[in-house]
Amino acid sequence: MIRALYTAASGMSAQQANLDTIANNLANSATAGFRSRRVQFEDMIYQNMITPGSPATQSTVSAGLQIGLGTRTSATEIIQAQGDFNQTQNPLDLAIQGGGFFQIQQPDGTIAYTRNGSFHLNNQGTIITTEGMSLIPSITIPSNATNVTISPYGVVSATLPGQTAAAQLGTLQLANFANPGGLNSAGNSLFTQTTSSGNPVTDTPGGTSGVGTLEQGYLENSNVDVVTEFVQMILAQRAYESNSKVVHVADDMYQQINGMIR
Hints:
- There is one protein chain.
- The protein is 23% helix and 31% strand.
- It is of the alpha+beta class.
- It has two domains: 2-78 and 224-260, no CATH class; 85-220, no CATH class.
- Strands 7, 8, 11, 15 and 18 form a five-stranded antiparallel sheet that branches. A three-stranded antiparallel sheet has the order 12-13-14, with no helix packed on it. The chain has a two-stranded antiparallel sheet with strand order 1-4.
- The longest helix has 35 residues, at 226-260.
- It is elongated.
- The relative contact order is 0.20.
- The mean pLDDT is 90.
């Protein structure tokens, strides 16, 4: 019965981690470019009373006798499904239609990746994120430029004084990974490369490497499905209650055994 206590406790601990993940998903349901996570569980080691396939008197044991020792969280999988688009009318807001990530240069010089396309200009006219980090490749828009447009294929153009035709100021690039689910969440809607994600493959939007195209004046909402998260929260609560009930039942059984010796 001591085994039952520890087994049920492992289930309660796993469901607590599950609830923490659901809470984070719901908290970021309004975060642009946020990718929800889903907890994956796995069973722990088994105590073999009788090993399946072990020899018996005249035959071999077909099923055996194994007692499991509980569960644990093995991973939190990043769901890479695309979120809905929200029209903002801001010419520097960009949404990626399809795969790929924007490349961001962090203060330490390393590159991070994001689906949050909420960009702004600094005092030098360089396109930056809300936190002040530069978009890669760096593109500067003159302060006297008007009618800034960004094509679906990443070409940034603007009308300059004294010119009738729009001038091209640069071309954006996106990065993609063989395993986007292996990226490391670094906060601020940023991801960083890992050995699991593989090396980034950069290309212009709509290129042959599989990256998507851009939508100017839109932001990609979080891909959190609030209804699904509430259902998962209820299931996590019920699973937690079931495991706590096992703890109570095992405790009652101990109480009865201790009462037998009085």
